[in-house]
Amino acid sequence: MTMTEVDGEAVPRRRGDTPAVDESAALSAAACMFRSLGDPARLAIVRHLTLGEHKVVELTEHLGLAQSTVSAHLSCLRDCGLVTSRPQGRASMWSLTTAPQLLALLAAAEQLLAVTGDAVALCPTYGEGARA
Question: Which pTM was predicted?
Fold first, then answer.
């Protein structure tokens, strides 16, 4: 038997047991991740970055958004750990940090949308007609 720490206390753990998970913290983190992907412009940026690295100017041209808007969305995605940048001359090249996992999540979302149809878009709380 080994010991693991839970809320600052040593708690015995049998071999094969998984450590205790703070469900509230895990759910909060998941909700934050989904909020980071909850903006159509951020989703468009993520989808475009699945094609490879891009400069902000390339993203603004492709998406038809202002440079400041794209930069703000990239900052949000970077702060959430979903994208990263590297300098290239005076510009930065942006890319996905966890492309396989993010692509799997987006594919699962597409499958769920295919099953639920228009239910999400018509939802009075989160749908397209909901108040912002």
Answer: 0.75
